[in-house]
Specification:
This protein is α/β, with parallel strands linked by helices. It has one domain: Aminopeptidase (3-Layer(aba) Sandwich), CATH 3.40.630.20. The chain contains five helices and eight strands. A six-stranded mixed beta sheet has the order 2-1-3-8-4-7, sandwiched between helices. Helix 1 links the parallel strand 1 and strand 2. Helix 1 crosses helix 5.
């Protein structure tokens, strides 16, 4: 009865003018807090590079075989808002990554469907949680950049058992600690939806 469920949470590394990526800072804070005794939490920093991020995501699903993988990314335009993303899109990736590349044909998976929905119902999640000092909204468009691309790849490899959370940049009012705490609240609620009732 003592088997733990594996949950993987990823953040992204620096890109453009963002020398500190709030997503990775938040994930590091989350790992200090953990997700309770029954969850084996793994964290990983993904590069803002299409192909490398996709390779790492495939590795997560093949080697760790998690119950759930949650990707956290930076929404640089968001102020004190956390965005729960419902689905990932396959096409339309025209923007260059940190290495100056974008996917061939602007596509993530040549044989993949147009979009893949998460098995987590973000609207239900959004109704059930509140986080101090930060508004939470949900969205059906993750923005057609590395975030959306990574999310789609993870939904594809993980049969929909992935989630994506956009976090705002760090500021006086939004600290890494407060984002880490928010991630903990949100992910524990996601795990309830996975049928894993937590203390």
């Amino acid at each position: 009865m003592d088997s733990k469920s594996t949950v993987v949470v990823t953040g992204f590394g620096p890109f453009r003018q963002h020398l500190v990526n709030s997503s990775w800072e938040a994930v590091k804070e989350l790992s200090k807090r953990g997700l309770g005794k029954t969850i084996d939490l793994h964290i990983m920093e993904l590069p803002v590079v299409y192909q490398k991020a996709k390779e790492q995501v495939l590795k997560i699903w093949t080697t760790l075989q998690p119950l759930l993988t949650v990707h956290v990314g930076l929404a640089s335009s968001a102020k004190a808002i956390i965005i729960l993303e419902q689905c990932g899109k396959n096409k339309g990736y025209k923007e260059m990554d940190a290495c100056g590349f974008h996917p061939e044909g602007g596509c993530c998976m040549l044989d993949g469907p147009e979009k893949i929905e998460s098995t987590i119902n973000m609207k239900t999640l959004w109704k059930n949680i509140s986080v101090e000092g930060i508004d939470i909204i949900f969205s059906r468009d993750a923005g057609r950049y590395i975030c959306d691309y990574t999310y789609y790849a993870s939904l594809y490899y993980g049969n929909g058992r992935a989630a994506f959370i956009h976090v705002p940049p760090l500021s006086k009012s939004v600290t890494a600690d407060s984002l880490g705490k928010a991630l903990q609240t949100i992910i524990l609620e996601m795990l309830k939806q996975c049928g894993e009732e937590r203390e």
